[in-house]
């Protein structure tokens, strides 16, 4: 789905700030949408009042009058609304986490002081606005607008207020979406629909993905995609500068500006309805293509609950047994993370308990997902990549699939030998993977899918938007299209055969499974990954570098890590049983003993993660011993996890 354009005026509520309704966009020539006072997303469940009614630990609020007009949060800071608080010195650059900003937003966890205070957040909002103004080189006759959404974290309302003030104080318009998904925020920069005040010139998602409840952060988008590392650094440098110049008057002024220029719209209803349209279209304009399918959703109390009621149900699916759809920023049930063991166990159990055809699980901000088939088998990591590759390669034969570096050798065999595609194994980091796919296309190598073992996936047809929900739409479409074929005539089948030869094969399997009464609806998906060999042992061990160790001799952990990798590489070339990967973009990757290992340097931390996969524990230990002998001279490395792994049990 590219830019959204559907008009669903009856569902869209544009709410205006209560205080200053009469000042509504006096200077703007854009059409004025109809208004209301509240933003009842998801049948009213996700309105602001809901977020505020949660138990709130002490929130980092520095001006009590500043917080919210509808709540009774007890503020733990100065009561004067005019005095500039003693702003603490803040190292803004420490808030950078790759292409995101991350920090602590809730006090109370030992050793984790609040770093995303209100003034820090306001400065970040103002800095993004300044960055965007420069980028867009606007003539200022029409203020730029920035859409802002958030996940279910309990610090969201406070950060939303602060970041809105930063943006508004810089003279830009703020469009608040309320609870939203990260992909929806990006999409709002592409949507052409004035009833929801889109396209936005820039978008901010307030989220810390799967991190604990006390953290929060920001992701930024323009219609060119997510901002990269250099942009984030630029924004944080600007924020530091803005922060150092905060004055009483400036803060009061930005608050006033925010009151005047903040609008609220129900964007997620439009977003969900466009996902529905995309599936209906792919299914041949059938109103309820998922009729007869039972699909359970686990949103982990994050922002993904809309997928059950607003996407699957309108398509005819039975979603009974879905769980943790209500937003709850304390994440009381499990970590909303498809890579988390307890989370995967929860969705698996839900599928089995409900005899469902399929289970879908999202992370907090819905940019990652995983699925479970009717038998309770997980489509995650290599299996999810295999499944998505199979679907994409049906449509784009021979295309290159770009993945991160920890994908298995068996996945390469599956993609290249069974599916006839090309596997391009690149580096960790979803932005790296997506950028590499874009780069390949730009140099003439066709690539339609970029996907990480974490579940982050992006498709060319979806503008390389990193979108967990869209990936699941693709999976659901496959269910639909195969069901459709089931009802097609023989003639249509033979025609389709020419174009969708793999799907017809699948149909035959599905049809025979149905006639013989075996296999749930998702068997068609399971069959897609048939032939993918999976290792008996798959581990990730983390070797930490002690940065204060004298062995570093004042050098950086990065230099030290590189030295470890170099030494390992030299050792490997001496062992005839081992083979270095011929093409490799990250760390040292070696095949041998029927399996493989990858030792690499973490993107941000002083850690060397080691992945080992092998057909047996014995083989895995042999691979582990190679690494153990290479690292034993490096005394600043904490090798305890590896030592334990290779110890005879
Ligand atoms: Zn996420």
UniProtKB/TrEMBL annotation:
It catalyses: alpha-D-glucose 1-phosphate = alpha-D-glucose 6-phosphate; alpha-D-glucose 1,6-bisphosphate + L-seryl-[protein] = O-phospho-L-seryl-[protein] + alpha-D-glucose 6-phosphate; O-phospho-L-seryl-[protein] + alpha-D-glucose 1-phosphate = alpha-D-glucose 1,6-bisphosphate + L-seryl-[protein]. GO terms for molecular function: metal ion binding; phosphoglucomutase activity; phosphomannomutase activity. It holds the Pfam family PGM_PMM_I. Keywords: Carbohydrate metabolism, Glucose metabolism, Isomerase, Magnesium, Metal-binding, Phosphoprotein. GO terms for biological process: glucose metabolic process. Its cofactor is Mg(2+). InterPro entries: A-D-PHexomutase_a/b/a-I (IPR005844), A-D-PHexomutase_a/b/a-I/II/III (IPR016055), A-D-PHexomutase_a/b/a-II (IPR005845), A-D-PHexomutase_a/b/a-III (IPR005846), A-D-PHexomutase_C_sf (IPR036900), Alpha-D-phosphohexomutase_SF (IPR005841), Phosphoglucosamine_mutase (IPR050060). SUPFAM superfamilies: Phosphoglucomutase, C-terminal domain (SSF55957), Phosphoglucomutase, first 3 domains (SSF53738). Its EC number is 5.4.2.2. Residues 96-240, 282-376, 382-481 form the Alpha-D-phosphohexomutase alpha/beta/alpha domain. GO terms for cellular component: chloroplast stroma. Signal peptide: none annotated. It is an enzyme of class 5 (isomerase). The keyword Iron does not apply. Monomer. PANTHER family: PHOSPHOGLUCOMUTASE (ALPHA-D-GLUCOSE-1,6-BISPHOSPHATE-DEPENDENT), PHOSPHOHEXOSE MUTASE. Belongs to the phosphohexose mutase family. This is phosphoglucomutase (alpha-D-glucose-1,6-bisphosphate-dependent). It comes from Erythroxylum novogranatense. The lineage of its organism: Eukaryota, Viridiplantae, Streptophyta, Embryophyta, Tracheophyta.
